[in-house]
TrEMBL record:
Polar residues composition-biased segments: 1-10
Listed Pfam families: WD40
Biased composition (Acidic residues): 82-116
Protein name: Uncharacterized protein
Alphabetized Gene3D superfamilies for the sequence: YVTN repeat-like/Quinoprotein amine dehydrogenase (2.130.10.10)
SMART domains named among the record's database cross-references: WD40 (SM00320)
SUPFAM superfamilies: WD40 repeat-like (SSF50978)
Keyword terms of this UniProt record: WD repeat
Ranges of the WD repeats in the UniProt entry: 384-419
Lineage: Eukaryota, Viridiplantae, Streptophyta, Embryophyta, Tracheophyta
Region of interest: Disordered: 1-54, 82-134
Length: 516
């Protein structure tokens, strides 16, 4: 793979399938005492001769009402997911209610106001959770359905998206057995006022922690900063309208962009990089007003920015890598905002991770095999075989030897750079693809996030034999450990129960509740 500093490349005419980032809206008249169903439930009207269902629930955010002649049936929203993530629609057709920008919602704002009034619920603290309150505020005691029963339904009916048919079923045979008895991070708080959203159903890197108290996330057209200390969320950047750089750098588009659809995000060392559906890159220094840099990486039809990673070079300079759907990986200097390297591949690149010593780049994408390349030349060093579908997540351990890849075959594979003939471990998910992977900065834990409901935290020192399972309901927009490893933030995307979950690390397995 040869380096290429050109700003435009050709690529196969292939694009990711775009999602509608919100469940199709249904209007109903709220009942006097609304009951909100857990995420993933939709209504189907019964026929006159049907027997009443045992668990009459409502769709997300809507009130439930029942009359003797009108029973409502419960069903998981697999069909709705297929409609929402219409695989035949081009990316450019994402307008109207397909995207959650304020201008696109029309009268849905009124619906959201109704939902907010009908379904007001307080945030959940660690103390309330210890007293038995559901961490997401789901009123199980008012629903004719237990949490355990609904969990079983979700596991049976959740539909994992695969590019290679039956890849997950085949991959499960290689997975190791692990003990689910660890407690490494404990629930601290669920903040319902912070609504984390996603735009692309395969891209889930939209939450970043910069300290144990601070997280950045995407909410519709806004980049928000959440402070756990003050309990206040602040809009850092809004891309709904027109934005343009306030600084002048070679290659920067002074005319800027309008209505950027943010597909991925990275925040580190007071620097923020947002990537867009049309190959946009927007860079901002969090200590300064305005936008520092804007550029369009490519004018190719397959321009979506799949992932960005900010890192420090061996000289101390701050750079970032952008993984683009045009089959390119680009590295930028964040001091001068100049393109330093451009490597091209045979398939769209979904995620890249730089080794701690800066010498190797782990590349995954629309191919079952992962690649290790030389960070300076782009030369391929080794191709790792084992996954059966496309990969969307990767991460290096701080030890510099171990790295992990996450795949739509529902597995995370852990590799040792000293022996790449086969993976060390194959870790399984419960219901879907592994969309995001993170190591703690001390290398003690690896976390992997599924598209919904589950984040798994593995104890690395146990040789990945022990794990903790974070269990909730809703699509996962992203997850991030704080740099000091004290906090894990998880973004949950859902019309009613969308929120930011916060977990705190337990040291020596003793209870720690210093924040709340």
């Amino acid at each position: 793979y040869q380096p290429d500093l050109s700003s435009r490349v050709s690529a196969p005419s292939r694009a990711f399938a775009p999602p509608n980032s919100q469940t199709r809206r249904r209007r109903v008249t709220p009942s006097p005492t609304p009951t909100v169903a857990p995420p993933g439930l939709v209504l189907k009207r019964a026929t006159p001769n049907s027997s009443p269902p045992p668990t009459p629930l409502c769709p997300i955010g809507l009130a439930w009402r029942s009359t003797p002649a009108d029973f409502l049936f419960l069903e998981h929203n697999v069909d709705d997911m297929e409609d929402d993530y219409d695989m035949d629609d081009p990316v450019d057709d994402m307008d109207g209610e397909d995207y959650l920008g304020p201008e696109a919602r029309d009268d849905s704002d009124e619906e959201d106001d109704e939902d907010a009034e009908a379904n007001k619920a307080s945030d959940t603290s660690s103390e309330e959770a210890r007293r038995g309150k559901d961490i997401q505020g789901i009123p199980w005691d008012r629903l004719e359905l237990t949490r355990e029963g609904y969990r079983e339904t979700r596991l049976l009916q959740y539909k994992n998206y695969e590019n290679v048919p039956n890849s997950a079923e085949a991959a499960m045979k290689a997975c190791k057995s692990t003990e689910k008895d660890g407690t490494y991070y404990e629930f601290r708080r669920n903040t319902r006022s912070v609504k984390s959203t996603i735009l692309h159903f395969q891209l889930r890197n939209l939450v970043w922690a910069t300290s144990k108290h601070d997280a950045y996330l995407i909410s519709h057209y806004s980049v928000l900063h959440w402070s756990a200390l003050s309990g206040v969320d602040t809009e850092i950047m809004n891309v709904e309208g027109h934005i343009a750089p306030s600084e002048k750098h070679p290659g920067s588009l002074l005319e800027g962009f309008s209505q950027t659809q943010v597909s991925t995000l990275a925040v580190k060392d007071n620097l923020l990089v947002a990537g867009g559906f049309q190959g946009e890159l927007i860079c901002k220094n969090l200590d300064q007003e305005g936008i520092s840099f804007c550029c369009r990486t490519t004018y190719d039809d397959n321009a979506i920015t799949n992932a960005v990673e900010i890192f420090n070079t061996s000289s101390g300079a701050v750079h970032f890598i952008a993984s683009i759907n045009d089959s390119g990986v680009r590295e930028y200097d964040m001091e001068r905002y100049q393109l330093c390297k451009h490597f091209r591949f045979d398939w769209p690149v979904n995620h890249t991770s730089l080794s701690p010593d800066g010498k190797l780049v782990l590349v995954v994408g629309d191919d079952p095999d992962a690649l290790l390349i030389d960070a300076n030349s782009g030369k391929a060093i080794h191709s790792m075989k084992g996954h059966l579908d496309f990969s969307f997540a990767s991460a290096w351990s701080p030890d510099g030897r171990t790295f992990a890849t996450g795949n739509q075959d529902r597995t995370c594979r852990v590799w040792d750079a000293r022996n790449l003939s086969q993976s060390l471990h194959v870790l399984r998910g419960n219901l879907g693809a592994i969309r995001s992977i993170r190591y703690t900065s001390d290398g003690q834990f690896l976390s992997m996030a599924e598209p919904a409901d589950f984040v798994h935290i593995f104890d690395v020192k146990s040789d990945y034999n022990k794990r903790q399972e974070l269990d909730f309901f809703g699509e996962i927009s992203g997850m991030s450990f704080s740099p000091d490893t004290d906090t894990l933030f998880v973004g949950v995307w859902d019309r009613t129960y969308g929120s930011l979950l916060q977990y705190g690390r337990l040291y020596n397995y003793s209870y720690l509740d210093s924040l709340f």
